[in-house]
Amino acid sequence: MEDKLSGIITGQEKIKSGFVAIIGAPNVGKSTLLNQILGQKVSITCPKPQTTRNRIVGIYTSQTSQIVFLDTPGIYTYKKDKLDEFMVKTALKAASDVDVICLMVEATAKKNTHDLNVIKQISKVSAPTILLINKIDLIKRQLLLPIIDKYKDLGSFEAVIPISALYKDGIDRLISEIEKLLPYGPKYYPDDMWTDQPERFIAAEIIREKIFHLLREEVPYAVAVTIDYFEEVPDRNLLRIGATIHVEKKSQKAIIIGEKGRMLKEIGSKARMELEHIFGTRIFLELWVRVEKKWRRDEKVLRKFGYR
Known about the structure:
Elements: E1 15-24, H1 30-38, E2 56-61, E3 65-71, H2 82-96, E4 100-106, H3 113-122, E5 129-134, H4 144-152, E6 159-162, H5 171-181, E7 184-185, H6 199-214, E8 224-233, E9 238-247, H7 250-257, H8 262-279, E10 282-291, H9 299-304
Parallel strand pairs: 1-3, 1-4, 4-5, 5-6, 9-10
Antiparallel strand pairs: 1-7, 2-3, 8-9
Helix pairs in contact: 6-8
């Protein structure tokens, strides 16, 4: 990884340390797994697919290791616009830059077309790969061994681990297997640091998550969130955040605002409560909604919105 050395903390004993990408098709539970490993919310989650758009960094530190996890957008075959292309490229780039890959599939998947595509893409990468079979809490135990055997035949894996990211089942074994594959090296981050995402990015992601939870169909996918101001007011124990919700159509803007502004108010209220929990201070949150036609197809606008 190009910027590995930039974060090295000098003067410390070497431990098992390195970078691990969590890769998989959309909606297999990658973000849930990262949040559970860290015991902190660093990646937004939603039952809808393609919620994660950027590479999200989560840092796990113990007495024996420091593992820098990269949560990635889901890999899928059909890409209808520049945003889709950006997300798939982001995931594949992350896979090519790490020490270990955690490839996640679903135990509940009846057809594995998406999984086969992901496995095919990842087979081109030289990093050792651990296969994670997620959502085992949703199947009968007697079905697990045949599922493991089915996936074992699809690729060359250092380990195959059944897990339930939701219930933390299998996470201890996963950490142990990752540590076996990592080299000895320095710590890249302080012990108390669990992500390197900027606070403005975190705020924008939380707002976007609430939109994914509250709205249906195409609207959440047409949304981008940018932060206009992020200002601390120390003497009032207050953080002032202003954000713009960008959509592609006037009809989408009307849906997000809602009748008499009710939907926008609910989005703001839910986002504010979570941001207060994350930042540990009172939040004043101001939201606007603006139309940016066909922004998902425009590379310049994508870059402006942070999809670089």
